[in-house]
Automatic annotation (TrEMBL), chains A, B, C, D, E, F:
It comes from the Bacteria. Homohexameric ring arranged as a trimer of dimers. Phosphorolytic 3'-5' exoribonuclease that plays an important role in tRNA 3'-end maturation. Removes nucleotide residues following the 3'-CCA terminus of tRNAs; can also add nucleotides to the ends of RNA molecules by using nucleoside diphosphates as substrates, but this may not be physiologically important. Probably plays a role in initiation of 16S rRNA degradation (leading to ribosome degradation) during starvation. Residues 11-140, 157-218 form the Exoribonuclease phosphorolytic domain. Its EC number is 2.7.7.56. It comes from Dysosmobacter welbionis. The keyword tRNA-binding applies. Phosphate binds at R86, G124, T125, R126. GO terms for molecular function: 3'-5'-RNA exonuclease activity; tRNA binding; tRNA nucleotidyltransferase activity. The keyword tRNA processing applies. This is Ribonuclease PH. One of its GO terms (biological process) is rRNA 3'-end processing. Belongs to the RNase PH family. It holds the Pfam family RNase_PH.
Length: 238, 238, 238, 238, 238, 238
């Protein structure tokens, strides 16, 4: 069994990150992972939600699919008057992942909202949102320092995300939609630059999986995350 | 008084239309008018809403701004649980304009929905949605013919839209946001390839305007629409 | 071709405006244009929305149809949990039209909301809402002056609205529903007492129309608006 | 203690019922009880909700206040995205009351919806909705017979409603708002033409009340209902 | 005719009240009336809604059915995006009933919310909510006194609720679902410890009823309420 | 460092499962894990959602907290008109976990909905919902077999869930709220009776964690899940 697009089992799809894709947001990028395209925009506001302790900041995320991001058109959330439960689940994951990247005390009383809007979805949109969302977040933080709003950069560490899964009985990195839709097991892993785990979500959709299989999937993800980290570093060096 | 970006008073902003910006929609393009960027996607479905006479088709549009399309982030519709009234107004205009372009009998029992999502808004998003939306619509219709779903192309005529306004006491074509926000009068005009009017909306935000001024604004729009039509023809020739 | 109700092509339906139809609102009237009946109520509040500059006031409108205003019963907005997009479009038009009638600086930090509730709809409800809404607004402003809340009347000019259209190939003033529903072209025009345009909306529902046709429709509307203005003056003289 | 408007304690406010106030509904009237004004419209549809047994019909009601029906403007339900709980309570009462008036088997598979829209509210709007709603319902049923849709009139008996209360320590019939707002006890009573009770709702807002007081309030209501019944008969005789 | 469960016509179902069923609420109980089970929780907050006069408190109630409380599963309110109109009606009744039990001036600027969640519904849930809700309310008030938040207990009198009805032509106390669903007449009666009425709601679902029948139903309810009062006293003595 | 309630680090809280806590649902139980109490009800319907392949069944879950389940009262979802995003996330997890327990082909065209309503929340409500939800599901499946609706039991394997975390620097099983709220790392693990993983969610709220730590947390969960499995077997043996 080989992969449809000829990739090795531990190979990422071609990744492209275009920083500053839009210009009004404090930070933005368009991230493309194969056919998956997510526009990530970081917006800074000078106030924090009520539950945040005085003097500290907040980082949150919103995630949405454009109606024709997928093979079939889906209705907008507003037409159904409810946030898609899948989007709710994903934006909580993205928010926790990116919040972990920031020293909220250093951020001071600012909220940074990362909007992740999927222009095209071909698998892996939630982890692309984490990886691209981090770039938008880092660009916004840099701007806050350059403009003298913050004394020092509140980024604590880089954050990347990638998925792995078991298709047939083969373990594979970075599932595209045609693989994801028939995967037995699907696991998303968000890591920092030390290879430590920030978020881990594994689902036995087709069958249960052993702790050993789970470890191997994490190891595959670690490889992918190292490559994504390298790309983020290049983009942000400029 | 000269324009901020050095344009002549009857000059359009630089326009760029990228067809097939996303690949799952039956037709799509990214239209850029200066800093304004709208992603237009046409989706075809094999059924029509109940109010449509048997045997004929339907064309409709949806319009939305991404939360950080503008200088300040705005909440998503779903967070407020209501479609922005401005979006409601605009998508009705876009829908009527594009519906007028199609012979609904020839379209047969299909619905084409044009999603216009503003990635960046710098004035003129509703008319850019009409102009770009027509390209997406035409690409989708061509595909329906190529795939043998339709016997002949149901497009009756091209459709373009542009705005003009009175800023200070000067009449100008294609207002960008910095002009639009202080315009006395604002007029949007959608036309077909014969220079006939399909939709006309004029508002005296700062002062009332005379029928003579109104005619001159329509004449300015006619000039802009001719140039947009030329660009559409080039794009669709390929 | 003659009109169903025997009117001349440039003749308004019989108009009746009953001021103070209800007594709690600061200003109110029932406007009847043929079978169309709209209850217009002006309510004054001592605060303004956040976007309004300090020291100035605001005028806004809401528009709604009672469920059995039409030939068929329609569900209430609340049953569908969404403001009818048509109502959203119309109340923005009515709000802009009536706001243009008022010197917002003279109004001071007050909001006047004009509620236009259609008791019976037989075509022309949006322009009847403008014409009747102006009467309610003017009565409310007069009351604010009489009660010493305002030093001088903030009304800048009268505002009236009427529609014209092309039915068959005939241009007609003030379309009733049976005409409107088969009109090729429909144009609404809101004017001040000088015959200047405040709002203009033209739609080629059945076919596109030339700029010349558009001018003639505006001229028809100007005639109708002059007659509506005369009636407003009589009502408000009392 | 005398009543503000000089009425006797067992005296109704002046009542006026204008049948056919609007013309598209199958039945309609405007009912005025003092300053309270409710527009009641009956709409007939050729289908019934799923819970209704085959071959039988349904009668239901909707109740709403226009935003400026009262001394202060209130937001529309749709602006708050929820049906006012008070309206929900009232329309269930009106629906049960009017349903009881109809032989649902004779009505056949039709639904009659009675829309009660309060144009002005000065106390007693729910019972005015019952009394006026019955007139609209009876007019619609008559029309169904006249048009041959129904073989015989499905009205089983007349239905009227009125309130009584204890203000200070005085029992009074038909409270207007100024009385209602300071009543100790408030009781609404819907009766048929035999003086039998269809709906009864009593509330000790200011203090609890004895069963003896409750009986006297019902007796007061019975007097008022007899007078309302007489007026309904006159209106419907025409 | 005898009752399905062998009860006498004026006999309550077995009642059990478990105080402090949950431990975080300031007061709580589980009330069981036959198969009907309602969890009642009283929550105290240090602020009052805007409409409450300065220095006084507020008591309110919310009522809801769990989706599988009944013989058939029903959708959650949030899935339909609307509060069930029946719940709206009931929670207004429960709120008025319990508010009447409290001296709001003595309560000071606190709001007590009584949540009544029906775990199982077999008839009489609204009156069980009143009876159980009072126990939760009284426990919360006692706690406020014990903790020194209030100087004296604001409870003015006990409150209980029970239903009676006419099934066939027999008057019965405390209808269970199998009786309620075929009752001709249904009456709910909330009383204080003196046997005075606080809330009364009677509905002639199957037929109208005479004032004499109504009195007898109130007398039946008075008997039931006396027994419920006795149980409340025992529970609260501890 | 010892645990507040004196438990060993790898020790579960006292667990109690009361089957058939309510009687109308096809299967139900009340599960108590320390102070956490969740009512789980399984409802069977004879139809499946549109996305389910013909001839197969569906299992889904809903999760909600009663307003006073926690130390502070929270508003109901319906008052905010949105499903809590946390509930959305959790019910998707519970649904996937329980769906994995069932052979959907054997279930045939039935939907089983597991409602998990938290009566009291003291940490671990999502995993208690899985463990208790499985009992409700298994009871419902048994009933379907006993009643002859299904030929054989569609349960494929048992499912249990438990959490573990790192508090301070100590790994602990089954966090209660006081531990959970200050945990550095939190991991939920759903397993089958073979100790294979069905769902895994780990979050580094306070700090990132190594793959080694992650493995140890899974091992702790495996121990807890074995004990929960034993309890489920006893309950279901009866």
């Amino acid at each position: 069994m080989t992969r449809q697009d000829g990739r090795a089992f531990d190979e990422l799809r071609p990744i492209k990150i275009t920083p500053d894709f839009v210009k009004f947001a404090e930070g933005s990028c368009l991230i493309q992972c194969g056919n998956t395209m997510v526009l990530c925009c970081a917006s800074v506001e000078d106030r924090v939600p009520p539950h945040v302790p005085e003097g500290t900041g907040w980082v949150t995320a919103e995630y949405s699919m454009l109606p024709r991001a997928n093979r079939e058109r889906s209705k907008r959330d507003i037409a159904k008057l409810k946030l898609s439960p899948r989007s709710a689940e994903i934006q909580r994951l993205v928010g926790r992942s990116l919040r972990a990247a920031v020293d909220l005390a250093k951020l001071g009383e600012h909220t940074i909202t990362i909007d992740c809007d999927v222009l095209q979805g071909d698998g892996g949109t939630r982890t692309a949102s984490v990886t691209g969302g981090f770039v938008a977040l880092a660009l916004a933080c840099r701007k806050l320092v350059e403009e003298g709003v913050l004394a020092s950069n509140p980024i604590r560490h880089f954050v990347t995300g990638v998925s792995a899964g078991i298709v047939g009985e083969t373990l594979m990195l970075d599932l595209q939609y045609s693989e994801d839709s028939r995967a037995q097991v699907d696991l998303n892993c968000v890591m920092n630059e030390l290879g430590e785990i920030i978020e881990l979500q594994g689902t036995g959709e087709g069958r249960a999986f052993t702790p050993q299989e789970q470890q191997e999937l994490v190891r595959l993800c670690a490889k992918g995350n190292r490559e994504l980290l390298k790309l983020q570093r290049e983009i942000l060096k400029r």
